[in-house]
Amino acid sequence: MSSIAELEVPGPVPTKYAIDPNQDLASVIRVKGVNMVYPGRDGHETHALREVNLDIRQQEFISLLGPSGCGKTTLLRIIANLLEPTSGEVSIFGRTPREARLGRKFGIVFQSPVLYEWRTVRNNIRLPLEIMKVPKAEQNERIDQQLELVGLTKFANRYPSQLSGGMQQRVGIARALAMKPELLLMDEPFSASDEFTREKLNEDLLRIWKLNQKTVIFVTHNISEAVYLSDRVVVMSPHPGRVSSVIDIDLPRPRSQESPEFFSLYTTIRHGFEGVFHQA
Amino acid sequence: MKTNVWGVGLVWIVALALAWEWGAQLLAVGFHDPMAASKLPYLHSVVSTMFNNADSLFEAASVTFTQATIGFALGAAIGYVLAVLMSVSRTIERIAFPYLIISQMIPVLGLAPIIFNLVRDMNASRILIAAYITFFPVAANTLGGFRSVDREKRQLLDSYAAGLPTVYAKLMIPFSVPHLFAGLKIAAPLSVTASILVDMLGSKNGIGVKLLYALYGGNMDIFWASVVTSALMGVLSFLIVLVAEKILVPWQDTANQGGAR
To answer: Do A101 and B161 touch (CB under 8 A)?
Structure first.
C-alpha cells in the first residue's frame, strides 16, 4: 500500500492503476487502494471492494457500471463519506471525503427520490439552501432557476405525492444542483424508471450537465445508459468487487443509441460481463 | 372516486338513531319490561331532556372538558418531550422505558384517589389524571415515528453536514407529526374519560357528578342525558384532533389523488 510520502514523489505511477498516469495531474478525485471488507458470521469475510484505484478528472462524466454486488454503490458511498473504507485513501479536490462533505462540495442523488413529503417541490429544493444559510432572495432565485432547468416550474407548489416518479426524481436532481456543488454523485438515479422515462431523464441530465459542467459520478447497472451518458465507463465486477476495466467513450454528443459505434462499444462492455451473465 | 363523507356520516347517524328508537320500543312494548325507561329510554325523550337541561348539562360538561383539555395538552407535551429525549439517546430510552411500561400497569381507578389525596384539589386532580392517561400513547407513537425515519432521508442531511438540532428541526419533527397525531387521536377521548372518572371521586361539579347523582337518585332521564353528553364530549375531543391534523398535515390529504396532470 502506498504511503503519503510515496504519493508526493513525482514519477511514474505504478501500472496497476487503471488510468493513464500522464493524466493524473488533472484528476480532482482520487481513489487509491480502497478496500471494503465486511466481517461475516462464520469468520468468512465479504470483500465488497478490493484494491480499487480510480482517478476522475475535472468536469468529467464518469459511470460506475456493473452488476449487483460489484461494489459500485459502496464506492460511491465511500466517496460521499456515508461509509468508511476498511483501508485505502480517497481525496476529493485535495480533501478527505469527510472534509468535502462538511465543506458541502458535492450533491447527492439517491436511487429513490428521497423527497420530504411534507415539503412542496419548491421547499424540497430549498432544503439544502436553508441548511447552507443561503440568503432568502438567492434561495428563491436558485430554486426558480433549477425548476426551469428540470421543467417543473408549473409544479413548484405541489407536494411530492402529487408527482409522477420521473418528476420526483427530477426534483431530487434539482435539489442537488441548487447547492451548486462541484461534484454530483448519482446512485442509480433512474433505475426505478421505465425505459421511456429513463431516456428522457438521460437527455435532460446531459443537457443540464453541459450547462453546469460539473464533475459527475454516475452509478448504473445499465450498459447503454452508461455508454450514452459518460466520458468514461468504469466497468466493475463482483466477488470481490473490483474495477475490471475503464473504457473511454469518444463518441460525439448527442449520441445515437442506434449508431454502429455505439453498438460496438456496448458489445465490448457486454462481452466483459459474459461470465456474470452465465453466473446469473 | 371520491367518497361522500357527509353522506356516509348522515346515513350512519340516522341508522343509529333508528336502531335506538326501535330497540327502546321493543323493550317497552314488545317485552313489556317495566324497567324499560331506565334500561334503554327512547332516544327522543333523552334528546328532549338534553334540550330542557341544556344549561346545566353544558355547564357540567364544560368543567369536565376544560380540565380534560388542559390535562391532555400537558400530557401530550410531556409525552412528546419524552419521545424526543428517548430518540436522542438510547441510554435515556433504556432508563425511561421500563418506567413508562410500569406506569401503564397501574390502574387509573387506583391511581386517581392517590393523586386526589396528594393534591387535594379537584381541578388539579382532573388535569393530572388526564395528563397521565395522555402521555403514554403520545410518547410511544411519536417515538415510533422517530424510529421509522428513512435512512436515506437522514443521509441526505448528513451530506449537507447538518447538525443534530437541524436534523430534528428539518426531518425528525416534521416526519413524526402524523405519528404524533395517531397518539393524540387515541389519547383525546381517554383524557375525557379520565376527567369524568375524577368527577366521580367526590367532586362538586362536572358531568361525572351529574351522572352519579342521577343514577343514585333514580333520575333516569338526566342519567341518560349525561351519558349521551359524555359520549359527545369524547367524540368532540376526537374531532378536534382530527381537524387539527387536517390543518397541520396537509401533505397526507393530497396523497394518492392520481399523478401529474
So the answer is: yes
Pick from A80, A112, A119: CB nearest B159: A80
Distance, in Å, from the CA atom of B124 to the CA atom of B112, rounded to the nearest integer, reads: 11
- CA-nearest residue to B154 within chain A is A114
**Minimal-distance CA residue of chain A relative to B175:** A118
Strands A46-57 and A27-38, sheet pairing: antiparallel
Q: Output the pLDDT for position A9.
A: 41
Cα–Cα distance for residue pair A82/A98, rounded to 1 Å: 9
The Cα A8–Cα A200 span in angstroms is: 44
**Enclosing H/E stretch for B4:** none
Q: Please give the grid coordinates belonging to residue B187.
A: 389519547
pTM reported for the whole predicted model: 0.81
CA–CA distance from B155 to each of A101, A122, A212 (Å)? Answer: 11, 20, 25
Distances (CA, A) of B14 to A64, B5, B68, B98: 65, 14, 29, 46
A107 touches chain B (CB under 8 A): yes
**Structure-block grid coordinates of residue A105:** 462540495
- The position carrying cell 462533505 is A101
Q: Greater confidence, A18 or B57?
A: B57
Average pLDDT over chain A, rounded to whole?
Answer: 87
A112 vs B: CB within 8 A: yes
Is-contact A54 A200, C-beta < 8 A?
Answer: no
Q: Are strands A183-187 and A215-220 parallel, antiparallel or unpaired?
A: parallel
CB < 8 Å & 24+ apart, contacts of B17-20: B17/B43
